[in-house]
Amino acid sequence: MALQFYSPCFLLRKFIRLVRIPCRLCCDPVPYPYNSRRRNVVLRFAALSALVGLLFLASETFKTPKYSASVNETKSTRHPGVLELLAIAAGMEMVRTPAESSSVKLPDESPVAPKISSDSRISGNLSKPMERPLDLDQIKLLIEMENRLQVVHNEEIFGPVMLSPEVHQETIVPLRYVIVVQIHRRINELGFLLESLANVAGINGSLIIFSHDFYDPAIIDLIRKSVSFARYMHIFFPFSIQTHPGQYPAQSPDDCPKSVSKTVAQRLKCLNAEHPDRFGHYRVAHMMQIKHHWVWKLARVFTGLDVTKDYSGHVLFLEEDYWLTDDALHVLDLMINAAPQICPKCSALTLGNYLKRQHPKGDTVEWIQFVGSRHNMGMAFNRTLFHRIIECIDVFCTFDDYNWDWTLQHVSLTCLKQPDPLLFLVAKSSRVYHIGECEGIHHQKKPANLKRPQCSLPGEVQKVKRASALFPHFPKKLKIVKGVLKIKPHKGNGGWGDPRDHRLCKHLSTGPGTDDKLSEML
């Protein structure tokens, strides 16, 4: 049952009307035949006393409740109350006594808001970092609550999510697109993505699902302040390295170092000594998380969310370091409508490409076999392809490559080759661009002398804006060209040799709920 809170003045009005006392403090006097000035004074004093009492009770009611569950008490049966969860969700600081406090230091992944560079165009939109970082208990509670409640924001502006086109009211914007954005911690890039999304034609008919593998209050606040142009919701990968410090799926002290030989690993008696990858290396947790998150995200969107589990249209998949043109959804509509005629065997669409020279007319699409490194940017597909991937999940989850896109290419050429490997319809003039070259996961591994000189995020954004201006936008129809239809098999980039990752990946593909215990998966 929903709780209603009333202002002290409203309650005082009710009290006055009940006892029929005239009061000049907050409302018009109610007639009453008083014959005694003394009685009038006494009753007014009583009303004033009642007001003071109500104010005191209101202040006590809205005091922040104490939250005493600590990491050391996770085995106890105590569960957080509704008020505690709501207080945490509202950003209220939990009051702890010294005995109750047990803040946990998270290895290499602090929940404190990331620092924003002074040259960032979005730095002014970010809230100040919280004075006291959230501890591990609070982060887990927030993630669990968000995943359970499945709150859709901005419904008061655009109306509730309506999947049926027949159900239409003037105050409701029908749902036309579902957009999923995979987010880690790249808040600067995310700001530019949100800026570009705000300028996309038709974006108000979208539901944007932000899929996180790290809980960062600054990122949540950025989205809250920036996204007023569409409905949106948050989902959180519940088996992240942030929420499991010092244990699998994060890096455990018992795990083997990445680059030791198998002989040395056996001598060290580390946990996964018998399971290096095809190059003799051992797992690196933050690299494994990306593929796990991708699998979980698909299962969550297509089977686990109330608002999308019956959605039959295409889902557009983006990442935090992308940038979209203003006609991206317009071109997506054209591709969806044209695909049955120009490429009936195509399983998916891709709005982006990595071509150095974009097609000058802006109206050309290519029918081509899927290549992981070329057609992974701005993919869109429906639940038909999702079910085909799930049918091949054993191949997907055991192939020795930590990249989901290269893995999907392998699945296409092996498990999905009948009746055909994955065929994609790809825009020759990109509507999605990658702006994360400066700080990307692969770029970070390069030696300093091999990195691009003078690489900056604002510079990357200006570069893609210039590139997108070289061709006309909003074409009326599409032209089709035929691309390469024979791709050589890929042996895999390694990094995915640990059987724990294989088992977790398979389990995540079933869309496990938030109550699943990690020990039950491994």
UniProtKB/TrEMBL annotation:
Transmembrane feature ranges: 41-58
Q: Membrane topology for this entry?
A: Single-pass type II membrane protein
Q: Which reaction does it catalyse?
A: an N(4)-{beta-D-GlcNAc-(1->2)-alpha-D-Man-(1->3)-[alpha-D-Man-(1->6)]-beta-D-Man-(1->4)-beta-D-GlcNAc-(1->4)-beta-D-GlcNAc}-L-asparaginyl-[protein] + UDP-N-acetyl-alpha-D-glucosamine = N(4)-{beta-D-GlcNAc-(1->2)-alpha-D-Man-(1->3)-[beta-D-GlcNAc-(1->2)-alpha-D-Man-(1->6)]-beta-D-Man-(1->4)-beta-D-GlcNAc-(1->4)-beta-D-GlcNAc}-L-asparaginyl-[protein] + UDP + H(+)
List compositional bias (Polar residues) regions by residue number.
Answer: 117-126
> Which amino acid positions bind Mn(2+), per UniProt?
321, 434
Which cellular compartments is it found in? Golgi apparatus membrane
Give the protein name, as stated in the record.
Answer: Alpha-1,6-mannosyl-glycoprotein 2-beta-N-acetylglucosaminyltransferase
Record keywords, A-Z? Disulfide bond, Glycoprotein, Glycosyltransferase, Golgi apparatus, Manganese, Membrane, Metal-binding, Signal-anchor, Transferase, Transmembrane, Transmembrane helix
GO cellular component assignments: Golgi membrane; Golgi stack
* InterPro entries documented for this protein: GlcNAc_II, Nucleotide-diphossugar_trans
* Cofactors, names only: Mn(2+)
- In its UniProt entry, the species of origin is given as Cyprideis torosa
Q: Which Pfam families match?
A: MGAT2
> What segment(s) does the record annotate as region Disordered?
99-127, 491-522
Q: Which residues bind substrate?
A: 182-186, 213, 289-293
